Amino acid sequence: MNNSWLRSLLTANDSILKAIEVLNNEIIKVVLVVDDESRLLGTITDGDIRRGILRGVSLASSVSEIMFTTPVAAPLGTSKKILAKMMHDKAITSIPLIENGKVVDLQTLSSVSKKFEHLNPVFLMAGGFGTRLRPLTDNYPKPLLNVGGRPILETILLSFIRAGFVNFYISVFYKPELIRAHFGDGSKWGVNIQYIEENQPLGTGGALSLLPKDLPELPLIMMNGDILTNVDFERLLEFHNDNSAMATMCVRDYEYQVPYGVITGDGHHILSMEEKPVQRFFVNAGIYVLTPELVRKVEANTRIDMPTLLQIVIEENKEVLMFPIHEYWLDIGRLDDFDRAQADIVRLGI
């Protein structure tokens, strides 16, 4: 029996931050919350954490604040066929096994079934000039800069391949021949790569109009080619599909502390004072899932960025959802970001 699942065990008093560390570091993407006698109290997936973040729950809070308290479990010895059916019927990816009331094993979807291949197109944006990274980008496009001994864009590509995606489109503009020469048609990774070459910069949204018209009727994942992350792309796609949205935008929780005391007043009267308050925002993480209908809406050769495109969709009263990322994420836009990425990629094993 493989005991790697034991690293996914936490107690109800452990912090949400510790649960995030477990989810980010373990192949098994679930946390089992147990008592001192190994009885199952609940489970935590990244979906539970994202919902907690949206509710404003602090990452320092205990996992009991967000855990799912009625998880599906099965007796030890249940066949893989039955476990696979249970996971399919309940739309879950793992089931703890119980013997004498205690958790003794954990079975995952990958352990009881074959790996699923995703035919959804993946659109990687690699056409920018990378001006803030000069002089590094004087002779190379930013996506080809090496981080951890491998081009940034190759790390992104491999992350999608590990998640089962096989159909890729890469948007190129600045020094496109270098990107084409490195990646070719994708055959050395066993995937398909096609290139979308802009004659003029069309923005992150405008390049969608250059995609082939015969794309499969499946949601498209779009991502900037300068992001280092270990986000779960399968979970992102599952979230988008489950909610039937026109578009889903990945967002990051961002906090900013005002360095002064903030005063609220009415005329000359002070109503309240708060010393160095923390402002909390959700910021765009540069990763999207788009329906085929939305991709087709983009007019040919029109410059438009994704936030503008999504704002139009919102004004049409169509649903645009946000998917909070709690995993590691870094936009490699400046030289200090590039230096930080060199250390992070080794530490995190991305």
Written description of the protein model:
This protein is an alpha/beta fold and 350 residues long. It folds into two domains: 4-112, CBS-domain, CATH 3.10.580; 118-348, Alpha-Beta Complex (Spore Coat Polysaccharide Biosynthesis Protein SpsA, Chain A). Helix content is 28%, strand content 30%. The chain contains eleven helices and 19 strands. The chain has helices at 16-25, 46-54, 80-90, 109-112, 152-162, 176-183, 203-206, 233-243, 292-297, 306-315, 335-348, and strands spanning 9-10, 31-34, 40-44, 74-75, 94-99, 102-108, 118-125, 146-147, 150-151, 165-172, 192-197, 220-224, 227-229, 247-257, 261-266, 269-275, 278-290, 320-324, 329-331. The longest helix has 14 residues, at 335-348.
